[in-house]
Give the backbone structure.
Amino acid sequence: MTVVLKLGGSVVTEKDRAETIDGAALDHTADAIADAISVGDVDDLVVVHGGGSFGHHHASEFGVSTTDGSHDVDAVHAIHGAMTTLNQFVLRRLLDRDVPAVPIQPFSAGHRSERGELTFPFGQIETLLSEGFVPVLHGDLVAHAGEGVTVVSGDELVVELAASLGADRVGLCSAVPGVLDDADAVIDRIDEYDDVADVLGESEATDVSGGMAAKVRALLDLDSNATIFGRDGLSAFLEGDDPGTTID
Ligand SMILES: Nc1ncnc2c1ncn2[C@@H]1O[C@H](COP(=O)(O)OP(=O)(O)OP(=O)(O)O)[C@@H](O)[C@H]1O
Ligand SMILES: C=C(C)CCOP(=O)(O)O
């Protein structure tokens, strides 16, 4: 069973305070992952984490998004540097619980064409999985023809990974319990973007990659189902349930 799990930046960081980890949430998340691996609920797991107050804060300061790039070398070091710092925090929490987590830095691997299409090699991830590791990727910057560098969101990586690895389960853990309707109730299932377009917005925090609207749009393009759930749904998702919202 191959599982791709995105830990939203809004879960693992305090998204409104620059470069601030949510230590308790990170502990809870790492516990849930370690438990799922130790009881055999998950064998092949790829983790992707988002930017939260590390990536988005710096990306916004330098005016870099998934489409607007920069040639400023300081922007590269600030944004990519913050993401590798966050990645170290996530890895440390997993390693402390004996999860064989290893880093994959998208900046060193992927690139975009002038049209913005992402190319990302997955051979190293497949091989690491078959050798028993848990690759941990993150939203990052990538080289972008004609733009310098742009942001690659963790959500984009999840979609590419799920398709390339033929993932059995895809989950996005975010700060909200699922996609919410206009009365703030969790929508159980989404199969058409237009059915929910009116309630989908950007993130309430600083976010350069499009918030919930971009997530739903990207996940609808996947052949397999994906699930969007909150912190409390993580263990249930890893046990095989579908908490929150299923994107068909
Ligand atoms: N209909 C909706 N239902 C739920 N959340 C919504 C909706 N519309 C907008 N949002 C916003 O989208 C946010 C989730 O997107 P966001 O990109 O912040 O999540 P994330 O993936 O956890 O963070 P990051 O991008 O840092 O990884 C919610 O916290 C909320 O502010
Ligand atoms: C802002 C950066 C560098 C990463 C964005 O990744 P996301 O939080 O998954 O959208």
In short: The chain has one domain: 2-247. The first helix runs from residue 9 to 12.
